[in-house]
Amino acid sequence: MKKIAIIGGGIIGMTLANYLDREQFEITVFDSGKNQATGASAGIISPWLSKRRNKKWYALARDGASFFEQLVTDFNLHESIYEKCGSLFLRSSKALQELEQLALERRKTAPEIGEIRRLRPEETEKKLPLLKAAESLYISGGARLDGKAYLEHLRARAEAKGIHIIKTEARVRRRRHDWEVASTQESLFVDELVLTPGPALKSLLEQLGYSAAVSPQKGQLLSFDTSFETGEWPVAFLDGEADLIPFQEGRLLLGATHENEAAWDLSPTQEAFEQLTKGVQPFLKEDFFTKTAYNYRVGTRAYTPDFAPFFGPIEGEAGLIVASGLGSSGLTTGPYIAYLLAQYLNSTQRQWEMGIYTKDLKNYIKAKNASK
Ligand SMILES: Cc1cc2nc3c(=O)[nH]c(=O)nc-3n(C[C@H](O)[C@H](O)[C@H](O)COP(=O)(O)OP(=O)(O)OC[C@H]3O[C@@H](n4cnc5c(N)ncnc54)[C@H](O)[C@@H]3O)c2cc1C
């Protein structure tokens, strides 16, 4: 049996561990949990009306969102973890008209968008009663994923299957015929090494003589526990700085900031509170969020110069696979990326052609020593 180590137990790493073939692999996941994005995330799965022009990203995000149907079945995800709750877009009339056209166009290749409906002001208010009466666009396919609950669920499944999870930071080293993974708890030699550590990929690849064009970005959001009956409320994309993400049992998230300069910093800031509460204010019937107790969630996203993810085997390296740079949409794309990597690793042919989803890895990763 081959030995495989996955470094990074966020959404990619844990999903991959659960999709790998246990008959072929002895699997160990190293996860320090430090600066994790998945557990801090907002949870919106609704990529279709994004105005981003990157076609590869859109194809990946669209197929990633559609993959959730299989993910729910494969991992038996309860609706407290993943739920199709619909998305609401609040914009000017002209912008809503454009969005509606875009939705109709994109639904031709993404039937998951579901129902597309312009809502009158009173209908918007009925869908999400905290909002002022205003025109909106509703699509029924939008969903929310509780990143933290998803990881807990997948960790339990992985452990039940005998996958070894080590909650500590790991370092890596190339040996002649295999890879060494060392941590304070355990060191092992593996045939295959998968690096899914978010922005920490840069330092891990440096240990192997590569430079990676990936950087950390701080993200903050606010979490409110309320007594509202939020179970049926959709996710609301507000025009501006903040989005509103209702979960079950009264939990409301307001997020999120994108702070490049703050990089790895995890301290909650008053500026984030002000940015997010001011951003939501014009859309609310009354000033609810500045008068309600809240907690911060802070995580670190990985982003690349073109804000697109990269993933796959590194050419010329036997058994070295990476995935990072998922940015603001990694809950949407992460499970599908993990599934594609698992398909590759589980197969005997080992063919990798992902040109429809990502640029070649060479655009993001370079050997420091030209002889590699
Ligand atoms: C505030 C916020 C809101 C977001 N909202 C959304 C959203 O609404 N929708 C959406 O689609 N996406 C959203 N995202 C983005 C999404 O959360 C990320 O893109 C995604 O979770 C990245 O997953 P990952 O597995 O690549 O990395 P991570 O989740 O960061 O996991 C990497 C793991 O590797 C571990 N690690 C790193 N180095 C080592 C090492 N040397 N040894 C051991 N362990 C290591 C880290 O501690 C971490 O646990 C949001 C992110 C943030 C921060």
UniProtKB/TrEMBL annotation:
Keywords: Flavoprotein, Oxidoreductase. InterPro entries: FAD-dep_OxRdtase, FAD/NAD-bd_sf. Residues 3-343 form the FAD dependent oxidoreductase domain. It is an enzyme of class 1 (oxidoreductase). GO terms for molecular function: oxidoreductase activity. Pfam families: DAO (PF01266). Its cofactor is FAD. Its EC number is 1.-.-.-. Belongs to the DadA oxidoreductase family. This is FAD-dependent oxidoreductase. It comes from Lactococcus muris. The lineage of its organism: Bacteria, Bacillati, Bacillota, Bacilli, Lactobacillales.
